[in-house]
Specification:
The structure is a single chain. The protein has 5 domains: about 35 residues; about 80 residues, Penicillin-binding protein 1b fold (2-Layer Sandwich); about 190 residues, Penicillin binding protein transpeptidase fold; about 270 residues, DD-peptidase/beta-lactamase superfamily (Beta-lactamase); about 55 residues, no CATH class. Strand 9 and strand 10 form a beta hairpin. It contains 23 helices and 29 strands. The longest helix has about 35 residues. The chain has a 6-stranded mixed β-sheet, covered by helices on one side. It is elongated. By secondary structure, it is α+β, with helices and mostly antiparallel strands. The N and C termini lie far apart (about 115 Å). Helices cover about 35% and strands about 15% of the residues.
């Protein structure tokens, strides 16, 4: 008997030691990781902030859309941040304020008045506001591999009634117990038995937090005991408010594809499109009710069940004195109040893909998914909306069967910033990003490089140089004979250089490319920003190779910027979780092409849309709105391209099939329509005409390229690099200003 007692005593001592070691291990685990887990945050990606000032070119409808996606709440008279009142062209809003890199935009009440499609005035407290910036739209995040997403909120910013309702339902004795509650377990069991349904759980908020942070969801006695011990330890080490704040930011509240929605602040944005502090009573109750079963009570998939659960929570809140019975009855009669438009966060997978790729050049994945970085981009929700609308409208018209695909890139060419991007016909769906990864022949878009290389040789070439648009055959050793053809299967004889590009004549372009040489044309492409996928073959002259819409955006960005090559950027600034700047992505540029040669190319790209293959743009744009661009079509109509620019925006659009089959479209009948419809709805600035030093104009007979007089037959004015004008003249003498019809080029001089 004595021996048995000794054995039992030893076993008890061993159990005590092992138990103590286990508790010490759990304690060390909690103290070493709890604070870190509180700040394990994905990077947040923001759009550009909307800047407003008197004279800003934005319509009242566009401002209303921006405020909608920002979650501003319509009220009769704004008294809190995030509220707005609108009366036609007059907005009274209370801004939220925002900490931008190196500068704070204050929260304030602002009166904004419009006149037409421009801001007429801004004022705050009766004083004029020169410039203000709205808080930027968060368009997405870069999440850890486990897909968790959350928006941090401090306990002080959580509405008091919401906190009281949460504790009334989930943990009534939270501020009294030591991490677990025997009374809470008993009370929950009694209430559930009495109501015949799960009204409350037995686990405290502290236990739930421990389970979410450290444990699995398996239902075993060992796990439950471990949970209780860790809850007690957590309660010993940290203040109650710290634990509650962590729970509010951690609790799991649903799934959106691969993204897990954690925390009430993100759930408020996800389900209602509002910040947590703007939720009404019934919306607060719904989120609290979802804790017991985020899938079971998901209001998007199970609205009836979610409504019943919400009303149970409202009843508990009334029973515990958090709200009155009348408030509970009124809230129970209300609808779920879900965000019908869906969350804008994560809605632009193609653009976020671009951001991720550029970030990974400078940051580790771990930094992007755990450090709570804020990434500020030039993404413009208003331009994106117009691009999506234009794409959908045109594609539905061209291809109701939805077998064609499309991709587009929009930049602000003065800065190289990518402002909008579509990676496929389904503009809001993730998947193959055609804007970045669909590599196809570019057709006649590459011709601009050929003609630019020629125009850099003013001693040999000018816009009036005569080219031969006649059949050509190239025989190369070991290669297939190359015999290009024009789109119309005709040759056009002698044509002027500018006409050959404006009309996109293949034969004349091939002959010009052969005169220059493949190496010179490939070198020009590299100077314009296209270095990959360029074949060193004569077929290059007609667009052979593999290029993405982003590659073509880079090329035409350099052209639009007058020969300044600058990297296309999707990132402006990055700050850490404390608001400290980490990195800036400043504007970088380098002149790679002669300004005078580029000016001549701009003239021809204007001619493309005024009298050449791109004339269709003026079925969408006003005649007085100047743009420049180039169509592109590949063999058998497999790819339809259009690239062009106005005075403020550059866009490249592509239409094709993923299987590389024929589309039956040219650049002018497909991609041009998307481009033109987008520009008509988005561009605010016509392309200006400024003639640089070293350029002069001359009247030319456009049949033979001879110098002629103003008002003579077939006379038109062309720009030339000084000294490159034709040496031959017609017999026609000048007839004086205004004696002949003015063409589109003449009108540019009258406007500037």
């Amino acid at each position: 008997m004595l021996r048995t007692s000794h054995i039992l005593l030893k076993l008890a001592l061993v159990a005590l030691v092992l138990g103590s070691l286990f508790v010490i291990y759990l304690d060390a685990r909690i103290t070493a990781t709890f604070s870190d887990k509180m700040w394990d945050l994905p990077a947040k990606v923001y759009a550009r902030p909307l800047e407003l000032f008197a004279g800003a070119a934005i319509s009242a409808a566009d401002l209303a859309y921006e405020l909608e996606v920002l979650g501003y709440r319509p009220v009769s008279s704004p008294g809190k941040r995030g509220e707005v009142s609108r009366n036609r062209d007059r907005f009274d809003l209370y801004t939220r304020g925002f900490d931008f890199p190196g500068e704070r935009e204050p929260a304030r009440r602002v009166l904004i008045e419009f006149s037409g499609d421009r801001v007429r005035s801004l004022s705050s407290d009766g004083r004029t506001v020169d410039l203000m910036r709205l808080d930027p739209v968060q368009i997405g995040g870069i999440f850890p591999q486990h897909g968790e997403d959350r928006v941090l909120v401090q306990l002080a910013d959580v509405p008091e009634r919401f906190r009281e309702g949460l504790l009334a339902v989930e943990d009534r004795d939270f501020y009294q117990h030591w991490g677990f509650s025997i009374m809470g377990i008993a009370r929950a069991a009694f209430n559930n038995l009495r109501s015949g349904q799960v009204v409350a759980g037995g686990s405290t908020i502290t236990q739930q937090l421990v389970k979410n942070y450290y444990l699995t969801s398996e239902r075993t006695l060992v796990r439950k005991l471990t949970e209780v011990v860790m809850a007690v330890l957590l309660d010993l080490h940290y203040e109650k408010d710290q634990i509650l704040e962590s729970y509010i930011n951690e609790v799991y509240l649903g799934q959106e594809g691969p993204r897990a929605v954690h925390g009430f602040a993100l759930a408020a944005q996800h389900y209602f499109g509002k910040p947590l502090d703007q939720l009404n009573l019934q919306q607060q109750a719904l989120l609290i009710g979802m804790i017991k079963g985020p899938s079971l009570y998901n209001p998007e998939r199970n609205p009836k069940r979610a409504l019943q659960r919400r009303n149970v929570v409202l009843g508990v809140m009334a029973e515990q004195g958090v709200i009155t019975a009348d408030e509970a009855a009124a809230a129970s009669a209300a609808s779920l109040g879900l965000n019908s438009e869906g969350s804008i966060r994560g809605s632009f997978p193609a653009y976020l893909d671009l951001v991720r790729r550029q970030l990974r050049r400078d940051y580790r994945d771990e930094d992007l998914t755990t450090k709570g970085l804020s990434i500020f981009t030039p993404f413009d929700p208003l331009l994106q909306r117009q691009l999506e609308r234009s794409t959908s409208a045109v594609m539905d018209q061209l291809d109701p069967g939805a077998t064609l695909q499309s991709a587009s890139v929009v930049t602000r060419f003065d800065s190289g910033e990518v402002a909008a991007l579509i990676g496929g016909r389904k503009t809001r769906f993730a998947g193959f990003n055609r804007a970045l990864d669909a590599r196809r022949p570019a057709g006649s878009l590459l011709k601009s490089a050929i003609y630019l290389a020629a125009l850099e040789r003013p001693a040999q070439y000018s816009l009036a140089t005569v080219l031969s648009d006649t059949p050509v055959t190239v025989n190369a050793a070991g290669a297939k004979t190359w015999q290009p053809q024009n789109f119309d299967r005709k040759s056009h004889g002698d044509v002027l250089l500018y006409q050959a590009l404006a009309q996109s004549y293949n034969l004349a372009s091939a002959r010009l490319g052969l005169q220059l040489g493949v190496s010179d044309v490939a070198d020009m492409l590299a100077r314009l920003g296209v270095e990959k996928g360029v074949p060193r073959l004569p077929a290059l002259f007609l667009g052979a190779g593999e290029y993405s819409p982003m590659d073509m955006a880079m090329m035409y960005q350099t052209i639009a910027a007058g020969g300044f090559r600058m990297p296309l950027r999707s990132i402006r600034d990055i700050v850490d979780a404390n608001g400290e700047p980490l990195r800036r992505y400043p504007l970088e540029y380098d002149r790679t092409v002669s300004l005078q040669a580029m000016h001549l190319l701009h003239f021809v790209l204007r001619a493309v849309v005024r009298e050449g293959t791109g004339q269709g743009v003026y079925r969408y744009l006003p005649q007085g709105f100047d743009v420049a661009g180039k169509t592109g079509t590949t063999n058998d109509g497999r790819d339809s391209w259009f690239a062009g620019f106005s005075g403020d925006l550059l866009a490249v659009s592509w239409v094709g099939r993923d299987d590389n089959g024929s589309t039956g479209l040219t650049g002018g009948s497909g991609a041009l329509k998307i481009w033109a419809q987008f520009m008509a709805g988005s561009s605010k600035q016509s392309l200006a005409y400024r003639m640089p030093d070293g350029i002069q104009t001359q009247w030319i007979d456009d049949r033979n390229g001879y110098v002629t007089g103003e008002g003579c037959p077939n006379a038109r004015r062309l720009p030339f690099i000084t000294g490159s004008e034709p040496g031959k003249r017609t017999d026609c003498a000048p007839r004086g200003p205004g004696s002949g019809p003015a063409d589109w080029f003449d009108t540019l001089f009258g406007r500037n």
